[in-house]
């Protein structure tokens, strides 16, 4: 009887994933959010996090020292289960490693005088905006998905539509507190240890365990005045996007959505304190259309303007996980569904991963692509054509960012800052004969040729040599040698390559 139950359960997960998501994952996700929000609010109001932080980091330090005392015969990693991360893959390597529990989930301090917030690595973007917003502050680069963590955005990377002004998430960080492989705790900045400071971003926990981060904060205003400009050819899209990105004044936010190779909408925004009430759009409310569908509706007609509450703007893609949820709950943007069940959206990515079967994983791998490729802005048109030729997935997400000449795994490869674009590709390829390995490797080769980069949460099919060509290991290798990391931690490549993930 039990095998039949298991088969039925797997059949539902594969063929009626929307039903499972609505009946189980969405209520469970809502419960997690309510619990975490309440718990985080109480901890912050009681100001108890700083006191417990010291105890928690000593515990991490003790675990690392225990690893050394046990003979250091295995490399280390965090004990955080792979299904809890935002990557759609789960790591294989954790099972053979010495796992260190790093339970660091709190906002520690908001220092208005020196304009920074100190947070532990598992603080999420939703948690951060809920804490800073009522105080009248925000951070210059706030990636839009609620469940993204500070640790993931530092050890991996993070980007937002303000990145053309401020750079990547790493560029708004002032200090990193880390436990090294010898058990020592260090707090590094650009001034006291620039080599370690610049090597930590993109390092995926291969230099030490992150304990806290100091992040720059800036005053927040009530609304974002958002302007939508339809574009009706690829050439026009690239010209408008480039012009708005490089505009020296205004345009705190720039974003593009391409709904086909020749059809898109470019958005520009600025924070404002007042708004025309008739033009206010509270897009964060549960019954509102998914943001990308709302943007698509702006294609017909000329430029339009509306005012969006700041927190709604920051998390505009959360309810639909960009446009990924349309493949899981096809009727999720239906007005009746939004009205009745939209308040539970979205199901958490972590729970979607946890409930995947081998069959659903295989289906996703063969018929789905998630990639963010970072290319110089002068190669934007060629890059969109390349994605169209290789995968034909729309919408495409376009987000400009300033890449600095500061050293590290990712830099401008010049002596000056350089403007890049994140091209986000999420969905089911429409190109005939899509082959995930060959198609992704073809795109990776193109990105390397234009001096671009690949975000490493996604499937990476590069060889070790190709990976080292794409990412500048000069400083990273030097720091790993200095801190004796080779025994303690794997290299980045060994944690992110496709064969290291399920």
What does this structure look like?
The chain is α+β, with helices and mostly antiparallel strands. Among the domains are: 2-46; 50-219, Uridine Diphospho-n-acetylenolpyruvylglucosamine Reductase, domain 3 (2-Layer Sandwich). It has helices spanning 2-15, 17-46, 49-69, 125-132, 150-155, 163-166, 194-199, 234-246, 291-296, 310-314, 335-341, 349-354, 358-367, 380-390, 436-449, 464-470, 474-482, 485-488, 492-496, and strands at residues 76-78, 98-100, 107-111, 116-119, 137-138, 173-179, 185-188, 209-216, 218-219, 223-231, 253-260, 263-272, 304-309, 369-376, 396-403, 418-427, 453-454. The strands form four sheets. It has an eight-stranded antiparallel β-sheet. A five-stranded antiparallel β-sheet has the order 3-4-8-6-7.
Write the layout of secondary structure elements.
Layout: H1 2-15, H2 17-46, H3 49-69, E1 76-78, E2 98-100, E3 107-111, E4 116-119, H4 125-132, E5 137-138, H5 150-155, H6 163-166, E6 173-179, E7 185-188, H7 194-199, E8 209-216, E9 218-219, E10 223-231, H8 234-246, E11 253-260, E12 263-272, H9 291-296, E13 304-309, H10 310-314, H11 335-341, H12 349-354, H13 358-367, E14 369-376, H14 380-390, E15 396-403, E16 418-427, H15 436-449, E17 453-454, H16 464-470, H17 474-482, H18 485-488, H19 492-496
Helix pairs in contact: 1-2, 14-15
């Amino acid at each position: 009887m039990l095998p039949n139950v298991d088969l039925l359960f797997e059949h539902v997960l594969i063929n009626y994933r929307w039903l499972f998501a609505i009946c189980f994952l969405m209520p469970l996700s809502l419960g997690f959010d309510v619990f975490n929000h309440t718990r985080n609010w109480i901890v912050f109001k009681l100001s108890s996090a700083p006191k417990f932080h010291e105890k928690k980091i000593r515990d991490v330090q003790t675990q690392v020292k225990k690893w050394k005392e046990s003979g250091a015969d295995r490399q280390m990693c965090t004990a955080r289960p792979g299904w809890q991360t935002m990557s759609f893959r789960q790591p294989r390597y954790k099972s053979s490693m010495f796992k260190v529990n790093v339970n660091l989930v709190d906002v520690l301090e908001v220092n208005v005088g020196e304009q920074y917030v100190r947070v532990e690595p598992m603080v999420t973007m939703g948690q951060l905006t809920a804490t800073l917003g009522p105080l009248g502050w925000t951070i210059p680069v706030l990636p839009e998905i609620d469940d993204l963590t500070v640790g993931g955005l530092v050890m991996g990377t993070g980007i937002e539509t303000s990145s053309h002004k401020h750079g990547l998430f790493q560029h708004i960080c002032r200090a990193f507190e880390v436990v090294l492989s010898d058990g020592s705790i260090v707090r590094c900045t650009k001034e006291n240890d620039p080599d370690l400071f610049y090597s930590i971003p993109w390092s995926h926990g291969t230099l030490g365990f992150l304990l806290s981060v100091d992040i720059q904060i800036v005053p927040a205003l009530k609304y974002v005045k958002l302007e939508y400009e339809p574009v009706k050819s690829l050439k026009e899209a690239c010209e408008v996007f480039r012009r708005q990105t490089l505009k020296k004044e205004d345009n705190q936010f720039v974003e593009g959505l391409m709904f086909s190779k020749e059809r898109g909408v470019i958005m520009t925004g600025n924070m404002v304190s007042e708004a025309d009430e008739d033009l206010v759009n509270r897009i964060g409310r549960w019954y509102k259309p998914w943001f990308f569908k709302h943007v698509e509706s702006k294609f017909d007609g000329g430029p339009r303007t509306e005012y969006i509450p700041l927190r709604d703007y920051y998390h505009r893609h959360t309810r639909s996980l960009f446009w990924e949820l349309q493949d899981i709950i096809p009727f999720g943007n239906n007005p009746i569904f939004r009205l009745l069940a939209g308040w539970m959206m979205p199901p958490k990515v972590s729970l979607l991963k946890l409930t995947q079967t081998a069959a659903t994983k295989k289906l996703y791998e063969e018929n789905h692509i998630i990639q963010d490729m970072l290319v110089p802005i002068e190669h934007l048109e060629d890059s969109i054509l390349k994605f169209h030729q290789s995968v034909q997935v729309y919408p495409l997400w376009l987000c400009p960012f300033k890449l600095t000449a500061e050293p590290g795994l990712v830099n401008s490869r010049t002596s000056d800052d350089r403007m890049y674009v994140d091209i986000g590709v999420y969905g089911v390829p429409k190109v005939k004969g899509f082959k995930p390995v060959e198609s992704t490797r073809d795109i990776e080769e193109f990105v390397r040729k234009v001096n671009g980069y690949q975000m490493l949460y996604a499937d990476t099919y590069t060889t070790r040599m190709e990976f080292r060509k794409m990412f500048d290991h000069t400083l990273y290798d030097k720091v790993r040698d200095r801190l004796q990391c080779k025994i303690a931690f794997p290299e980045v490549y060994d944690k992110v390559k496709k064969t290291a993930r399920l």
